[in-house]
Each structure stands twice: as C-alpha cells, then as structure tokens.
Amino acid sequence: MRLLAPLLTFALLLPGGAALAKPAERSMDERFAEADWNDDGFIDRREYYEALVYAFFRLDAESTGYLTRAQLKDVTPEVFQAADRNGDGKIDLNEYIDARWDDFDAADENGDGLLTLDEVRRFDAKLRPGERG
Ligand SMILES: [Ca+2]
Ligand SMILES: [Ca+2]
Ligand SMILES: [Ca+2]
Questions:
Q1: What distance in angstroms lies between residue 102's CA and the mean position of ligand 3's atoms?
Q2: Mind listing the pLDDT tens digit of every residue in the chain (133 residues)?
Q3: Ligand 2 center to residue 80 CA distance, Å?
Q4: Which of 30, 56, 57, 65 has its CB surrounded by the most CB atoms within 10 Å?
Q5: How far is the CA of 66 from the centre of ligand 2 (A)?
Q6: What is the DSSP string of 26-92?
Q7: Where are the domains of the chain?
C-alpha cells in the first residue's frame, strides 16, 4: 500500500471536484464521463494525465502555481507531507502529478492500461470506506 494512495479521491481528481462542488453532488458516472474525453468508456493514461493537470489548475483557483494545505482539505497532513517532496509546504504541479500518477496503476486492476468505471468505483470505495450512500 502506497502512502500516497489516499490522495487519489476522484472528487479531487476530476474537474469541478472538491473545489467547486461537494463530492456527493456529483455521481461517479458523471465524474468518470468528464475525464473520459474521447467517450470510449475508458480512462487511459493520457486522459488521466490531463485530468490531473486540469484538476490542479481548478484547485489552484488563485493561479499561484501551487496548492496549499488549505486548498487540499480532504488530504491528511501525512499525505500532504509525502507529496510535498521539496518540503516547502506547497504542492506544485509536478509534485501533484508525481503523487498521484501511481494511483493509475493501483486502480487498474487488470493491468491493461485503461481504467473502467468499475475499476474507478472499486478504487474509490477502497480509499473512502464508510463514505458511501
Ligand atoms: Ca477515453
Ligand atoms: Ca513542494
Ligand atoms: Ca483496467
């Protein structure tokens, strides 16, 4: 289990996630569909990368180029610290992508390089037990 795994909540990952809407207001289906740019029913690595970049800039509402702990409310201090590789108390775009890139493989159960809605759902459920419903 990677320390950073809890950083991947699809509420943060996908456009309009934690920053603009409460996660409960958006279904997983909707958030998945938004990340699946070409509508083929899978999120590939390129779409995942773009979703991360997009999420970063959505979260970075003031365009400072980094995220502070206040902007990542759902992230525990331990996870934040682990993601903050250079220890400056901020998460820049590279740190953000690095921290969450491996989550793609963690969620990709059958290792085919594509995430399905089911894989994303199960991964999300694993990360956030007891938050369903
Ligand atoms: Ca796709
Ligand atoms: Ca940093
Ligand atoms: Ca897969």
A1: 14
A2: 344 444 445 444 444 444 444 445 678 899 899 999 999 999 999 999 999 999 999 999 999 999 999 999 888 999 999 999 999 999 999 999 999 999 999 999 999 999 999 999 999 888 776 654 4
A3: 9
A4: 56
A5: 8
A6: S-HHHHHHHH-TT-SS-EEHHHHHHHHHHHHHHH-TT--SEE-GGG-TTS-HHHHHHH-TT-SS-EE
A7: 5-15+27-127
Relative to beta strand 66-67, strand 114-115 is unpaired
